[in-house]
Amino acid sequence: MNARNIRIRGVGAVSSAGWSAAAMHEAVLAGTPLPATPCTRPGDVRSWPCESRFAPASPPEKIARHPRLRRSSAITRYSVAASLEALADAGHDPAAPPPGLGILFVMMNGCVNYTGRFYNEVLQNPAQASPLIFPETVFNAPASHVASFLGVDGAVSTLLGSPNSIMEALDTAAFWISSGIVEDCLLIAAEECDWLSAEALTYYHPKLIGSEGAGALLLSASGGGPRVSDIIGPLGYLSWQERCDLLPELAAQTLAQVQGPATLINDRTGITKLDHAEADAWSGRPWDAVLSPKYILGESMGASSALQLVLGTLAVRQTQQPVVISMPGANTAAYACVLTP
Amino acid sequence: MNTCVGSSTLHTTNLILSSLVPSPLSQSITITGAGIVSPLGMGWRANEASLAADRIAFRPVDLFDTREFISKTAGVVDLPAENLFHRFSAHKQTFFDRGTRMLLLAIREALAQAGRQNMEGIDAMVIGTSAGAMPLGEAYFEHAHLEAGRVSSQLSRAEHYQPQRQMSSIAAEFGWRGPIIIVSNACASGANAIGWAADMIRSGRAKRVLAGGYDALARLVFAGFDSLHALAPSGIPRPFDAQRDGLALGEGAAVMLLEAEDVRKSAALGYVSGYATATDLHHLTQPDPAGKAAIRTMTTACTQAGVSPSQIGYINSHGTGTPFNDVAEAAAIAAWAGDAVGTIPVSSTKSSMGHLLGGAGAVEAVICLMALHGQWLPASLNVREVDPAVHFDLVRHFRRSALDHALTNSFGFGGTNATLVLQRRSA
Q1: For position A99, which CATH number holds?
Q2: Do A95 and A157 have their domain in common?
Q3: Residue B9 predicted with pLDDT over 80
Q4: Which residues of B touch A165 (CB under 8 A)?
Q5: How far is Cα B427 from Cα B423, in angstroms, rounded to an integer?
Q6: d(Cα B277, Cα A247) in Å, to the nearest integer?
Q7: Is there a smaller number of Cβ atoms within 10 Å at the N or the C end of chain B?
Q8: How confident is the model at residue B375 (pLDDT cuts 50, 70, 90)?
Q9: Is the minimum CB–CB distance between B130 and chain A shorter than 8 Å?
């Protein structure tokens, strides 16, 4: 991967902890899982428990105003808020983003609220399904809205996949920057949670709790901010067992790059059956701190690796020590990365 | 008058681009294999024969109920009835989407054409899709609404709704464990995926990448275009016709095996010589009437390819057949080409197979490769009276032609524009 040495100049986040990266950082450092609430179904008929940790309502000052955002769904609002925070964090006036900005967007489920609503209308009466909703169901609608809001008319692209697909996006952002296609790149990953997504997670494990949010990173070739000093992976796998078997190799390759005190940000859910392979792989080294954002915030699917990176950036700033981020993924490949001051 | 305006616009665009794109990234990428599955047929030969016969492939859709829709036809692929995956049980294959099966067939053809039995030595797979495995999502939704209790099969639906899980099944079929990158920029997805892969090779991040796109017909998507009144009521799309009234949907897949220029040069079918992408901020679903983003992508892709508009021997247009798209693309081509516009042959193969959405850019890129290889031009069919916005040479019937460079445009919802330039092997 070519993303080594790219700088993370600014970060922003929306999560179940609130509408800022600082709120997420504080919640994760506190170490206590945020309260979950029952996730209701239409008609409220479900024979098994299903909980979620939704993002709280937007504070008034975080509501961005733009014609495109009038009917956009939560995933776009999270993305815009996180992007504006990342730009401001990097010292830019969010009202005047830097010229030559590109956008790379990563998601897994995408615009599930409008997709469910539109398909429900199709099932009820296709002839009356709303033409206003359908375009909002398309996977790249959030990226398009963010681009429109920020006036970005250059390279804008959306990737689908496991949350750790963000590492492929990071690599491409580095290429875009180094080749002059863009000068800076906003890397965004976001997800919104609805009752269908929350239920789907319970099929993987009854205690898996759905969540949502967005993480945004402003990447540049130069300037201040933590450095992406190493990316390990992808280590591809075709089954859960293969995934478990190769995580020690992922950890070994990563740890060979890290000297001295460091922080680990892992993918732990708090469910032993899902976590044990990752926990075993990284257990052979003392860590200054181990942070588990998914355990605290919930399973935010496509947004989760971005939230790890945002948290890692804040941890590097705070500790001035390396941060290792473990992204084992769920069904295609495992990655890890090292951030340094 | 239009050509004067065009020349002026081109000059201005070049000035802007010269300040934005310092690196031309001019390395051509070798295409050593290609595979195509479309409503016109399975594989290169079948598609070539259909295009040579000016055949159209629209028929009633029987995959879901279309009674309530304005249009009831589409370009439907006749998939083989047998199990296409050799390493999975018949039961497991019920969770593999139609689009995934089409993609598998296209990949097999591309690998065979490149003289490969498997995916060993391929550094990455970059695939574009707009809808992914939407029918699995639809089924998950319907079961969730019907059942108050847990349904064990919902786990498989939730799992296989994810496009990366579908792609992972293809990887497993070949025992391959490389990175899978899925680009989803609506109808530009397939073109963006090929461009993304070419960029990976140009930047030295990969030597050999399998790239393309796919989409299968899905009820939700069909209903969406129906709700927008974007589908031609007759079921017959007429790109660049003065009275065009909408598009027809289709389904299909195509892939190319792309390799670094210095790899297996003797096996080259052609080259990807230029690629550019830009964003049209005009509207979520409607293009800027002047096609400004399209002008930028065509100009930048040709700059990267080192060719001028007059050297382009064929354009496979986005050409959906909707009133807004075609007039904007015609304006963009006129502005980009300037004085050369009248000499450039242009057609829309969506007129014969429909709009393949996330698969369109890849299928149309492979058609460009076939045209370069065979020295022919596919037609824009169903045109009764050419729209006055058309100043290019609209190809209305299949014809033989000498050409060295072809260009294909893809424009998607959300404003993603992409242009690929392909070069003939011997040029």
Answers
A1: 3.40.47.10
A2: yes
A3: no
A4: 164, 181-182
A5: 7
A6: 37
A7: N
A8: very high
A9: yes
Mean local confidence (pLDDT), B1-5: 28
List CB contacts (< 8 A) between B163 and chain A. Answer: 160-161
Instruction: Name the nearest CA neighbour of B363 among B18, B97, B48, B16.
Output: B48
Distance from CA of B285 to the nearest CA of A (A): 7
Asked if residue A266 and residue A154 are part of one domain, the reply reads no
Please answer yes or no on whether B164 and A100 come within 8 Å at the CB atom. no
Task: State which of A220, A251, A277 marks the end of a domain.
Answer: A220
Transcribe B217-230 into DSSP letters: --HHHHHHHHHTT-
Do A134 and A243 fall into the same domain? no
B355 catalytic residue (yes or no): yes
Rg of the Cα trace of chain B? 20
The reply to whether residue A140 touches residue B204, judged by beta carbons under 8 angstroms, is: no
pTM above 0.90, yes or no: yes
What six digits make up the tokens of A300? 């935010």
CATH code of B2-424, in short, is 3.40.47.10
Question: Cβ contacts of residue B316 below 8 Å, gap of 6+?
Answer: B347, B348, B349, B364, B365, B367, B368, B371, B378, B406, B407, B408, B409
pLDDT in tens, chain A (341 residues): 567 779 999 999 999 999 999 999 999 999 999 999 999 988 778 889 999 999 999 998 888 889 888 888 999 999 999 999 999 999 999 888 899 999 999 999 999 999 999 999 999 999 899 999 999 999 999 999 999 999 999 999 999 999 999 999 999 999 999 999 999 999 999 999 999 999 999 999 999 999 999 999 999 998 899 999 999 999 999 999 999 999 999 999 999 999 899 999 999 999 999 999 999 999 988 999 999 999 999 999 999 999 999 999 999 999 999 999 999 998 899 999 999 99
Q: Give yes or no: residues A109 and A237 share one domain.
A: no
Cβ atoms of residues B162 and B180 within 8 Å: no
With both helix axes pointing from N to C terminus, report the angle between B323-337 and B2-20 in degrees, rounded to the nearest 10.
Answer: 80
Examine residue A235 and state whether it is found in any structural domain, yes or no: yes
Asked if residue A178 and residue A48 are part of one domain, the reply reads yes
Tally of domains within chain A:
2
Query: Are residue A238 and residue A211 in the same domain, yes or no?
Result: no
List B160, B302, B318, B391, catalytic entry: B318
Q: How far is CA A54 from the centre of its chain?
A: 15
Give the number of beta-carbon pairs within 8 Å between A and B.
203
The answer, yes or no, to whether residue B159 has pLDDT greater than 60, is yes
Tens-place pLDDT, residues B406-415: 999 999 999 9
Give the CA distances from residue B201 to residues A122, B198, B272, B310, in Å, rounded to whole numbers and listed in that order: 43, 5, 11, 28
Q: Where among A220, A237, A253 does a domain terminate? A: A220
Predicted pLDDT of residue B267: 86
- Residue range(s) defining the domain that contains residue A187: 6-220
Residue A171 lies in a domain: yes
Note whether residue A1 is domain-resident: no
Are A145 and A263 within one domain?
no
